[in-house]
Design a protein that fits this description.
With 338 residues, the protein is of the alpha/beta class. The protein is built from twelve helices and 15 strands. Strand 1, helix 2 and strand 2 form a beta-alpha-beta unit. Helix 3 packs parallel to helix 4 and helix 6 runs antiparallel to helix 7. The longest helix is centred in the middle third of the chain and has 15 residues. It is globular. The N and C termini lie far apart (44 Å). 47% of the residues are buried.
Length: 338
Amino acid sequence: MSLVLCSCSNEYFEDSIFSNIVFYIVSDNNLHVYSDSLLLDLSKNVVSQNDSRIFVYVDDLNKPRLYQLQNGLILLNKYSEVNSLSPNHIHKVLTYLAFNYPANENGLIMWSHGTGWINVEESAESRAFGYDRGETVNLNKLFDALPIKYDYIVFDACNMGTIETLAEAKEKCIYLIGSPEPVPADGIINSLTINLLSNNSLSLEQRLKGVCDIFIENHQHYKEDISISLCKTSNIDMLIEHIKNKEHFFIEPSTIETIHTYEFRNQSLFFDAFSLFDTLQITDSNIKNFLLYNVSGYNNRYNGCGLSIFIPNIKNKSYFDSYRLLRWNKEVNWLDKW
């Protein structure tokens, strides 16, 4: 394996390219109209920078393609019809970019449908990101497929801003952006945010916070609740250690009903994480170190922390078998503490 694949993404490279931003768009589904609009926006409005490169892999109703965005879309590769959510294919595409286009800073934007850690078809093998003609990818397999540790990953998809996602991501990215609830179909990322992410006059944290702000500003008239959070993944270890040392938790069913849940198909599965921690009287300041920034929409009925967590109870027992496979559950023994 090359040095690029074995080393941290911040390592110095002789070509002095400041950053790579990689879009991985899976819209071979009912989002294809919105991905078409996104590609048009990017091709017209992104300002090319000499020290930044932007790549766009897209699998829509046409065959998958890989572009470089440089004053328009430049075709780099065409692929035969393929499941773009196959871990082998994800690894193939991202490894090609990591080998051939090294940079000091690497960002990855995963754009598609999302269901957080949720099993899609009552199968333990269906915790899902993405949707490609019925195919999805498990979170653990998705992160295993990534060939380098990215400086940041943005999940431009619904319900991916979860404690469970953070636990899966901590070995494969430094910062993570996601929403705990449904994301509007036009998404989090656009030409404004890409131009911001390419601006190396700002620190990475400043740029990532700006991505969150732009998302909310662009949807100030959106009628549904929206929220987004920025987390530093390594700092979740403090929370993991804290929870490990707790013997058990108990909340009255009536109290669970009062904890805010983020929308998911009329089911109560994505509970506001810090509301739960407050209810459990987990006040150690270490648990909040990983949440660097969160922001909610202008008309939200509830301003949560921008991260969700699962609360096991009799009403969602059917999800326990798949939840046991999650890294979060394995590390803190979450289900068995209730």
